[in-house]
Design brief:
- By secondary structure, the protein is α/β, with parallel strands linked by helices.
- The protein folds into 2 domains: 268 residues, TIM Barrel, CATH 3.20.20.140; 46 residues.
- Helices cover 41% and strands 13% of the residues.
- It has a 7-stranded parallel β-sheet with strand order 2-3-4-7-8-9-10. Strands 1-11 form a two-stranded antiparallel ribbon.
- Helix 6 crosses helix 7, helix 9 packs parallel to helix 12 and helix 12 packs across helix 14.
- The longest helix is centred in the middle third of the chain and has 18 residues.
- The radius of gyration is 20 Å and the shape is globular.
- Bound molecules: zinc ion (2 copies).
- The site of one zinc ion has 5 residues, from loops.
Length: 322
């Protein structure tokens, strides 16, 4: 099956896009060239009506993202354009970065649970790092007793993991197991989150790049993911299916886990999602015009998993060719 849609990509409206040519017009032009039938733009967005945005998200608002809509409206009739968003789930605070009212301003929604590089937002510090932070806070407070407790807390929390690691003699925590366990927990908690459940009932919603851990080298991603057994993956997607959430097949994440699909642990994730009855959406997660081309990875994944049109989310079924 050929995938003729891409509903996960970032252009100049996302802070992480470094391609200055990645305007909405340029994305639309490239999608037409690629022969896609449905294009959805999905920049990183934190709804400005939801409290608790990190500094990085605070400037990426719905109002700013909506500036792209004028260009989407000018696309040729052969390309159906959708206005979407990749928002966020801060597992540490059980908070979705999009309100139900905010979601209504979009054609569809992507919510990730695996931006684990966002420490103490998506993933709590490793236990050793937590201990070191607490020790530094206690030592600073003892040395500078005139500082208020909240001042000391801000200072200790501002230190990056890379700095703190230098003072840890031995990291006893198995990072792969720690991240895998946290990903399972965050998936379950997302599927039980009231706002997320309501968003799923309001607009087509996918769990973006499920179980693709961010912030670790590509070479070790499969060895981390192997920690999660099939029956756990199946149960996670049964929960997602029950609330009407789709499973995203993210071409960039597939590539990062390796194009030897037999060895690619994400295939096990998707196979369990399929077994649980979840439907799929495809996206490149491209941050440049050029990498919109990797949507062809989606065709290979479809063939490998034996996906057919009925496995695709209804709103995108015109965006595949059997
Ligand atoms: Zn993401
Ligand atoms: Zn993305």
């Amino acid at each position: 099956m050929k995938i003729l849609h891409d509903v996960h990509n970032h252009n100049i409206f996302s802070n992480c896009c470094n391609d200055n040519s990645a305007s909405t017009d340029a994305f639309v032009k490239k999608e037409v060239e690629l022969g896609n039938k449905i294009f959805g733009l999905s920049n990183h967005i934190w709804d400005e009506s939801v409290k608790g945005a990190s500094y990085w998200y605070s400037k990426q608002t719905i109002t700013k993202a909506e500036e792209a809509k004028a260009s989407l409206a000018k696309a040729p009739a052969s390309l159906k354009c959708l206005f979407g968003a990749e928002s966020e789930y801060f597992h540490c605070h059980d908070r979705v970065g999009m309100s139900v009212e905010g979601a209504k301003r979009f054609d569809y929604m992507l919510i990730p649970h695996s931006h684990q590089h966002m420490r103490n937002q998506v993933l709590w510090d490793l236990p050793e790092i937590q201990e070191m932070r607490a020790k530094i806070a206690a030592d600073v407070q003892a040395a500078l007793p005139y500082l208020a407790e909240d001042t000391v807390k801000v200072m200790a929390n501002a230190l990056q993991e890379a700095h703190l690691k230098k003072y840890i003699e031995e990291q006893k925590t198995d990072l792969g197991k720690y991240m895998a366990d946290a990903a399972v927990k965050s998936f379950y908690d997302l599927c039980a989150n009231e706002t997320f459940i309501k968003i799923c009932a309001t607009v087509p919603t996918s769990i973006a790049h499920p179980f693709a851990f961010c912030g670790i080298p590509n070479e070790i991603k499969n060895s981390f993911l192997i920690n999660i057994p099939d029956e756990v993956l199946y149960d996670c997607f049964a929960k997602a299916k029950a609330i009407g959430a789709y499973c995203e097949i993210n071409c960039a994440a597939v590539t990062e886990h390796g194009m030897d699909l037999e060895a690619n642990q994400l295939m096990r994730v998707f196979a369990n999602a399929k077994k649980a009855g979840c439907q799929f959406t495809f996206g490149t997660d491209s941050h440049s015009v050029k990498s919109l081309e990797i949507i062809r990875v989606g065709d290979q994944v479809c063939d490998y998993l034996g996906l057919t049109k009925s496995d695709i989310a209804e709103y995108l079924q015109d965006g595949v060719e059997e």
